[in-house]
Amino acid sequence: MRQTDPFWWEAAPPQTLPQIPVTPTCDVVVVGAGYTGVSAALTLARAGRSVQVFDKMRPGEGASTRNGGIASGNLRPGYDELARKFGQERATAIQTEAKIAREDLSDFIRRETIDCDFKMTGRFSGASNAADYEGLAREAERLSRQLGVEAYAVPRAEQRAVLGTDFYHGGMMRNDIGGLHPAKLHAGMLRVALESGAVVHGETAVEKVRATGIRFEVTTARGIVTCDHVITGTNGYTDGSDKWLRRRLVPVRSRLIATAPLSVTPLQFASR
């Protein structure tokens, strides 16, 4: 029988929440109950705001429980490329923000006691040739010196001990990258948000958002809400209820492959 549900749902399937009445007024309406929406709702509720979250699916049923679960402090462009495009000061600021974001995630998981299999496993970036290795070695040195990231170059002669293969021309190891169970993370975030007083309406689509002077009128499948602010956290699931945002989204394809355990030396990382 073909399995169509995401693997992550075996341990943490999306929840069907009890249907409660939609309150006609609140401080903030949040559209989308994935990571972004639930995080915003949690922050607002703890700040004393009345907040209602609406999702046309079950909370977290979209990308938040279907992603690869990589908890990463890195960016695809290296520092040199960022500096060429944006200047050195902004490049450093971008990489610093990425580092802080990963640290904040780690602190949040620990502080809220969310069981989501979070582990810092490290990441090896392989060089396809000798010139690439020199670039990765410079990147590792700069990450360590400027940002305090535990990163170091791995020469080709030492690569097998780290990666179990001689395929690459050496590479860079950085230990500030890990992984987690994305569906368990979302379930934990949803739990904490609900405990903090946020109201989440699953399977309740937002059909229209209209500005009415200094407030907003949000039409949902189960009633109209008047609020002071609206936060949209729908990303690729944005529909016609927000035509402005939908026109500005560009789809990017991504695929994940899961295999049985491979008979090679597992990735090892250690302090240097």
Short description:
The chain has helices spanning 35-46, 79-86, 88-111, 130-147, 156-163, 182-195, 243-246; strands at 25-31, 51-54, 70-71, 123-126, 151-154, 171-174, 178-179, 199-201, 206-212, 215-220, 223-232. With 272 residues, the chain is α/β, with parallel strands linked by helices. It has two domains: 13-40 and 183-238, FAD/NAD(P)-binding domain; 70-179, no CATH class.
Q: Measure the end-to-end span.
A: 48 Å
Largest sheet: 6 strands, mixed
With helices defined by DSSP (H or I, 4 residues minimum), what is the helix count? 7
Question: What count of domains describes the coordinates?
Answer: 2
What structural class do helix, strand and pairing data support? alpha/beta
Strand order of the largest sheet: 8-2-1-11-10-9
Which term fits the overall shape? elongated
Provide the β-strand percentage band: 15-25%
Q: Extract low-pLDDT stretches.
A: none
| Element pattern in H and E | EHEEHHEHEHEEHEEEEH
Q: What is the residue-averaged pLDDT?
A: 91
Total beta-strand segments: 11
Q: Level of helix content?
A: 25-40%
Computed Rg: 22 Å
